Amino acid sequence: MDCDTGVDDALAIMLALNSPELDVRAITVCDGNVALDLCALNTARIAAFAVRELNPAADMPVIARGREITGKKTDAAFVHGTDGLGGVSHKIAFDGEIGMIEPDAAAVAEKFLVDAAGGGKITLVTTGPLTNLAHWTRVIPDALTGGIERVISMGGAFFEPGNVTPHAEFNIHSDARAAKTVLDFARNNGLHITFAGLDVTRRVAMTAQALSAIRAAHPENKSVPFIMEFNRPAMDFHKRKRGFEGEFLHDPLAAALAVDSSFCETIACDISIEADDSEYSGRTVCAESAGGAGPFSVCTEVDTERFQDFFYSRVTGIPPDEIKRITRSL
User: What is the CATH number of the domain that holds 196?
Assistant: First the structure.
């Protein structure tokens, strides 16, 4: 995983680490939602929390610090909180957390990818700007092509407006040049990327109502109250802006596709990205490929109810049938 760990990245990490179908070897950290060092701390903390509370049998993934975005001008602290985790990241701090963060994400990525080239290849899930992946195309290109089976990326707004500008989604807009570099590399080297953009991620949400009902039914569960706490600023933001008390599940949907690709329908296409400094910077344009073949895939439909039940179960550890019983009663 490659994350700029704010609130929805944290949920994606929790989902992934409590998915027995996945073996999460490493989480590299990119710049984005808040400053890079905060994102790295959040990543270490939420991974340790997820292992402790949801899946004690899981191995703690390697956490590695990546690169800052050159000339970065904006972040999303107004949604995610000043620390990127709702102002409560410190509540899950632990001894030795800084020392466990590796300083060079490219070196970590290269090690795992070279090892994977000799066996089963790796799925890379990106939930932030593509800054790190763009850097890796320059410094470890052979490891990428030899070790990655597929990339699943939360990014883009292909058929509806963006969430930063009318034309662009946050992750792509934050480092549009990096995104263009990645697409050019992928197109030229046969690296397939599936994009889960706003077209589908705005159709899946975690609601305060559902969390409250789950908490009432399972007061002993430790994940639910913390999820409610670190998502409070984001939920307040959406309540003010969109009139619903909840949080879109942008990044968890991308992580879930690594478990079950049938959560979304896709189309094959080629993609262009505006990477200049104009008002259209970060705009993603999908040109559907004739015959159902193309260098990229874009998600166009999502099985909302099935995914949301899956999500609640994985981030709480409560069995799916019980989650369904609770959510269907709302």
Answer: 3.90.245.10
